[in-house]
């Protein structure tokens, strides 16, 4: 009888742990969308797993900082990495965008949250573990050697076929990086709110405003860099 009760207790604890694990990876209501040369990629975040990182990345998306940026790295079966917004954009940033773009966040890791599948979002950093910024990678395959070294903060919810298309581009190796031969543009981005059509409409309005601003900035940049064209 005692052994039976111990088994039942173990089953209850295992079930409880499973619920906790699922809750821990609960997706944010926000969905950030990247509009690329190869199609759209929808991203959701893990606010309970990496709250500081999610706060930063989501703010950068909401401010339109990833507009006119690009994927500077595409390593087939490993990662597609987005450039940091301070150096990757083809358009200047306003004061508020610059303020958020210069922020860094500490490493946020958990032993049971792993780089185990395609679509995981992993924050890039320098040698300092607490130097995460605006650059991040989307996994193109499992990468267990990154576990406990880089912050996992979300996942792709739609657009896996776009990731597959990215892996077909021609690349060149420069040092440790495998890079596309031609620029893979992130033309624009926007944020949707999964639980509110009103917030969704507000987000689209914000996107249109940011996109118009970006187009104006690109036009000014073109006039300055390519006079007469």
TrEMBL record:
Descriptive protein name: Peptidyl-prolyl cis-trans isomerase
Record key words, sorted: Isomerase, Rotamase, Signal
Signal peptide region: 1-21
InterPro entries in UniProt: Cyclophilin-like_dom_sf, Cyclophilin-type_PPIase_dom, CYP23-like
Organism of derivation: Picochlorum oklahomense
Domain PPIase cyclophilin-type stretches: 28-191
Enzyme class label: isomerase
Family the UniProt entry places it in: Belongs to the cyclophilin-type PPIase family.
A Pfam family assignment: Pro_isomerase
Chemical reaction(s) catalysed: [protein]-peptidylproline (omega=180) = [protein]-peptidylproline (omega=0)
Molecular-function GO terms, alphabetical: peptidyl-prolyl cis-trans isomerase activity
PANTHER family: PEPTIDYL-PROLYL CIS-TRANS ISOMERASE CYP23
Function per UniProt: PPIases accelerate the folding of proteins. It catalyzes the cis-trans isomerization of proline imidic peptide bonds in oligopeptides.
Coiled coil regions in record: none
SUPFAM superfamilies (alphabetical): Cyclophilin-like
UniProt EC number: 5.2.1.8
